[in-house]
Write a structure and sequence with these properties.
Chain lengths: ~325, ~280, ~325
Amino acid sequence: MEDLLRIDGLKLTFETHDGPVSVLRGVDLTVGTGERVALVGESGSGKSVTARAIMGLLPQRRVRIGGNLHFDGSDVLKESAARAKARRGRDITMIFQDPMAALNPVFTIRQQFAAVLTRLDRPLCAAEAEDSMRTALRDVSIADPERVLDSYSFQLSGGLNQRVMIAMALVSRPKLLIADEPGTALDVTVQQQTLHIMGNLSRSYGTAILFISHNLGVVRKFADRVCVMYAGRIVEEAPTDVLFSDPRHPYTRALLASVPRLSSDRLPEPIDGSVPDLAALADGCPFEPRCPSARPECRGSVPVHRFDGRSVTCIQEVAPA
Amino acid sequence: MSKADPRWRGWRRFARNRLSVFGAALIALVLFCALFAPYVAPYPEHAGVVVNFADANKPPSAKYWLGTDSVGRDVLSRIIFGFRNSLMLGAVVVSLAISIGTVVGLIAAYLGGRVESVLMRVTDIFLAIPSLVLAMAILGISQPSQMLAMIAMAVAWWPWHARLVYGIVRSLKHEGFVTAAEVVGASPLRVMFGELLPNCAPNLLTKASLDMGFVILLGASLSFLGMGAPPPTPDLGTMVSEGSQYLPDLWWLSITAGLAIFVIVLGFNLVADGLRDLFDIVG
Amino acid sequence: MTRFLFSRLVSGVIVVIGVSVLMFLLARVVPGDPARLALGPEASAEQVEAMRQQMGFDRPIAEQYIRFMKGALNFDFGRSLYTDNPVSQDVAATFPATLELVIFAGVAMTVIGGAMGIASAHFKDRWPDNAARILSLLAVALPNFVWALFLMLLLSFWLGLLPLTGRLSESLAAPPAVTGLYTIDALIAGQWQVFRDALAHIVLPAVALSLPGLAQISRLTRTNMVDSYDRPFVEFARAYGLAESSIALKWALRPAIIPTLMILGMQIVALLGNAFIVETIFHWPGMAKYGVNAIMRKDLNAVIAVVMLISVFFVLINMIIDTIVSFIDPKIRLKAS
């Protein structure tokens, strides 16, 4: 399996009115063709920024970027804005957190879907486009595509809107689908359903998925590999079952322990402290203030241990728990 | 104040906006002239009845920095007194308009039902007539005077405030803090003036600043048409009108008085912009 | 949608009636005797009394109002004290000039103001935005009448580019009246010279009239577009690689237009108000100038008629805007279902 997406030491700093803020501080991430990778972290860890960097949707001004970002062989950071734009909606697509908000309230679903279809390689005539749309909607288990196409987003339920978005995202058979907290705005059961549909459809198209979430339960069911992110850095990366059964990084362990589990008598343990202020971050490990096994050396540079197809960014000789 | 203090952040945001600071400086200048007019103006007596035909219609010179008008009065002095006139007018009218409008808007939005319909209908009726026309119509009733002009303008202006407050309170009506106050047994008056009114404050303050500028503009328009304070009161709009008869040759009276009005309105507009950013008001 | 429009119509009618009551009461508050005002100081006491009876001032207020409204519905507002014509005739004669001015100013205000606003939002915080901001500030803070005088000085007196006052040069006759708007009528009749002349005459007053509204529309459109640009659905459009021009002119614009349209109605009516000043300065023979004279001379019938017409205009404009909004905003259109 070759790498579709390769991110190497990605650094990103925003120049704000109150000073520079380092949002990404050396992110390493890879996604292979057809692979499903989850990017997990709390709010403010830099997950969404990473997604936008991959798509080339970052603001042009007041931003400093460093490191490497390669997609499908191209150097995304060095290429022109036009190249990045040509890829969007075709090779890379995105699904958003709140499906109703992501769809324009004054245009019908049909009008928006038609706009999405203009991104395909071949221009379609009206009849072909209509056909395409209906097939796409049926593929996401929408029984009545005609009615949905005629509707506006506020007339449809959250789950329906989400499925419309999935249909739009996969109609071009993209190489990579970035799902930014999909279904967060939905009920749990609806969320499961739509993710199931997304999973099956992408599998049949060979689309890789970068799945951004803070919900570990969903991640477990869905992803092949998990990357745990904290304060702009990937702290641990492993295949899903390995990560859940054998977490090595203190943050990952704490995260897993903080999730309530119906199958266990153990009460969830919250993590002490709070997410650091990115504007005031010092060097060294960002988790150090909250880490139960912190050492003075943690304030210096932190090495990345790679072994057994996984990586852990910690100063400790991390042994199994 | 520590750096993280929201008030400090707020001031910094205001100060960072150089235009708003410039606007505040303009207003400070105007205010200074208004307060200390008799001491600032080079010929304070020219604000009153003075006839000096020897020096009439002189262009700007060392003696009269902005020239003289048709009866020989120093334009600069009259402008400085005109500032005083305008600011006073603006302050009175805006205070009146805000008071009436806020009360009407609050009551209509909070009490709802019949009261709301009636009050907002009345507001709509006043809003259907352009401010200038309404003020003129009221002023046309009797001899124009400073007092009547202020009343007329306040009558023309209050509906805008009523609308604004009505809109805000209507959206706040169902917020948690209102329900909390009601549950505890606060009387409607208490809820309206104790809870809802403070929440309108940022919007009202911004609008008040903007309004000062526009009310002064309205007043100048009225006096330009001859409905302002009668002579010899130094009124900027009247001065523009007087000067317009002598265009294009004796341009300084109209243009300088016009620029004086511009300075006031610009100042208040810039400050209002800054306040809007400061309070993060949307729309 | 029809239900929505119908309710707005009913509101509009109530407003017009309300305005009539307001003006009626205002007119009755006039100190001094209107009958004597009408007849002049030489008239005898009996003549004044007879006039009072004829004017109906001896009747109870409610009856006077009914009489007034009956007349209003028949477009009869009495006679002008000054011109001695029926007021409705005066108004009908002068209204087209004002309408022409308001149309030109309104179009300029909407199109230029809107374009400025969209450009400002798109180039946010860069030089087009700042330039637009300064222009808007100048347009709004420098009083209408000062702008008018300044433009007159610059373009008419000093540069001699445009004519000074009136609708047409003295040497030319008005085109055959179809709409009453000289520019349109001249076009219809194919009188090119008259058309160019009328156009040259309307430019200065229309620009002076449109400036404050232009500034407001520009700032408002900018605010609404910036707000629209921040919404998730614009990011969605960008994420799918849609063209920036399409985003600016379609995806972001249409949701932003709705709040702007609401204010546009008020701005157009404000044009009518500002016309009172502009027509006076440029000696434009319109209804607003007639209104100013009427107020100065306490010509009550004329004043009432002019204000009533303005309020009817207000209601009409708002109805048109409401119709447009209900077409664009599906939430309103579909509310009935």
